[in-house]
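cron nightly-structures :: item 1 of 1
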Amino acid sequence: MATEQSKAHHVGEWATLRHTSPEIAEAIFEVANYDERLAEEIWRQQGSDDVLLRAFNKTDQDVLTWDDKTVERKNV
């Protein structure tokens, strides 16, 4: 079983490869219960309210990125 540290590293790498903020990637994996196939599907659909709410709860930033697209806190 993966440790929390290895999960965090994997999610960070996954986010970088997809030009997505780490907060969004982490939220995607939480919603997908760390199932990579499901995470990929959620990422492709872009715009899950549950993911975005979780992501913005992880940061004080007002702008995050999902596949190089800007997402603003005020629009969530």
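cron nightly-structures :: done
The chain has four helices and two strands.
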